[in-house]
Structure formats: C-alpha cells, structure tokens
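Please review this one.

:::
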Amino acid sequence: MEEMTMKRRYRYLEQFFADARTILHNIFICYGECGFIPDLAGIMIRDCRYDLDEIRQCKDCYHHSNAKPKNWFCQPCRPAHDLVFAKQKGFSYWPAKVIKVTQEGYDVRFFGSLHQRATIASSAIRPIDISLKQLMLKRTVGFNKAMKELSLHQQLLESAAQDTDEQSGAENDPDDEPEKEEQNEKLAKVHHKKFHHKRHRGDDHGCDSSGFKSPSSRSQGVHEDSHLVSSSEDQVHAGARVFSTSDVAVQATKKSGRPQSRGMQTEEGEKSATVTGCNCDVKFSRMFEEYKNQIEADFRVDKERALKELEERLRKDCEEDKQMALSRAMTSVQREVESVRLQTEEKCKEEYFEEVKKLTDKHKREISLAKKKQWCYNCEEEAMYHCCWNTSYCSIKCQQEHWHHEHKRMCRRKRN
C-alpha cells in the first residue's frame, strides 16, 4: 500500500480502503479475532476510515494539517471555507473555519495556536463581519494571535481570487482572437493544398484506362486521406467510389468486345461441375472436427497441468504461511514467557528484600530488648537477684553455686 501510494497508483479512495480491508481479512485468517496483532489491525482500519472521511471533507485541509508548511492554517482551500465567530461553553467568541454543517451543529476549527476543533450549536455562531463591540470580547494574547491568523487568511483568499480572475481574463482576452483566427485560416489552407495534391497524385498513378482505381491504390488513398484535415466539401469529393461486380463485367465486355452471355454460361457450367464432382464440405467438416477434438484434448491436458501446478503452489504457499504463522506465534509466546519471567523475578526480589528488611528490624528490636534486661551469670536466664555491679542471678541456687565456685574471690559488694 505504501509503494502504490508513493507511485500514485490509487485513482479512488475506495481502492485504498479495499486494500486496507484485505489486510485486515488476512490478519484475521492468520491470527484470529483476538490478540495483539488483530487489535492493531482494527485500530489501523479505524484510522484509515477517519483519514478518508477527512479527505472527502476537504483534501486541502488534510494536506496542510499533515504537511505543516509555514502558516499552514492560513492557506486557502478549494473551495474556501466559511468564516464565523463561534462560542464554546466557558469561552468567548473566537474566529473559526466551518469544516462542515451537520444536524448537531457546526463543525468548526478555531484560529490560534492550537487550532482546536469542536461542534458548536447554531445559536452560538455569528457572522465574521459582525462588529467586535457587539460580541464584548476580551483582547487577550491568544485572541490577538487568532485575529492575525484570520487577517492573513483573508489576504491569501483575496490574492488567490485575483490570480484566478487574471487567468480567466487572459484566457478570454478579445485581443488574441484575431490572431487565433488568422492562424486557423493559414492551417486550413495548408491542409487543403496537401489534400488536393495527394488526391491528384492518386488519380494519375492508381487508375486504369477506363478511369477506375485499383484496389491497392484506392486503399492507400483512403488511408492517406484519413490523416488529413479538410472541409466537408473535400471529404464528399474524396470519398472512394464503390463498384459492383456487374459494373466491372460490363466494363470488361466493352473493352474486350465479346458478348456477356457466353462468359456467364461458362461460369455456370464450371459451378455445376464443381457442385456435382467435389466433396469439399465433408472433407473440411471432418478436418474441422479433428482439429476441434485435438484442441479440446490439448485444452484438457493444459487445464489439468495448470490446476496441478496451482494446487502445488497453493499448498506450498499455505505451508509457508503456516510456518510463518507458527514462527510468529512461537516468538510471541517466547516474548510473553520472557516478560512474565522477568516480572516474576522482579516481584520475588521485591518480596525477598521486604522480608529481609522486616527480619532485620525484628532482630534489632530483640537485641535492644535483650540489652535492657539483666541475665543470670550462672545459667544465663533472666536474673532477678542483684549481687554486685555486673553479677545477677535468677535464683538462690545459682547464686550459691557461683559463690562457692569463684565469685566469693571476686565479689566487689561492700560488706559490713
């Protein structure tokens, strides 16, 4: 489609849309109705339909909006759009072009920086030549820019109208008509002379003694005269005379001086002889039947061979399409699996880091709580009896065991 568009082979918009629908049909056959690629094909068809509708409305607006030349919105269209002041809800009156008129209202496109488009009710439309004081407008920066674009658009419209008037005046200029008439008269005289010159040459070389042209010279004369331009009178005189066989026979008898009846009798005798003693019709009919049967047999053989070749080609194309569709499906499945794997890995990493963070916080809290408690020096349980500055016990039994074992030599508790 892109190649045909670049080579300008599309003559109608319907041809382009038919090719787009063919692509959609083939995609639905290969990939089905559901999936990523069929959805893209549906979006493509919607975009094509929208663009073709825009081209049907105004091809100049479509070209300018996509090519984006300098001051593209100010360029005049063919035919030119109506200019109005349109008011949208929440805004003041604004200059705009009327793209089309529908039952819902006016489809307009506003002048300014964004060139927005909207459907405005007919009650909110004012003519372009209305006084700005009646509209009670605010002179903002955007409105001033829109008015500049409007004035430039009007200037371009006036210049385009003047150019068309000058061209039409140049084409219909009365001063050039006498010159054209003189040229046409000269051309007519030249063709008239050429025609008569060729006509006399044909009469001198192509006629016999009785004044009749030979068939070859007559056909050449007609072929040469068909390329000439002359008046109606010359065409009447230049027409080839048609003679019948009787006229030719009369002339031949006059020339030879023999009676006509004898020649006619001999011709009739020859005809009767050929009719009675010849079986050409049977022979030719038999030959025709044989030739017909041979052609039909050759046609059947060629048809079977062509059908077999077409079947093989279709089978190969079908296998290739299947392989291509299978490879595309495998690649798409692999991409989806890879994306799911990456997403799962990312999710597992996030969960792992969150769990590690929770455990770290819990560990820190437990360590802080353990540091705030006292522990038995003997069995490392939580202590409740304090002995000296760094020694505590959970029970009297642990205190006695540790006292007799070593603590009585190192205890720093003051004794009375």
About this structure: Residues 85 and 95 are 5 Å apart (CA to CA). The radius of gyration is 53 Å. The chain has a mean pLDDT of 76. Residues 280-372 form the longest helix (93 residues).
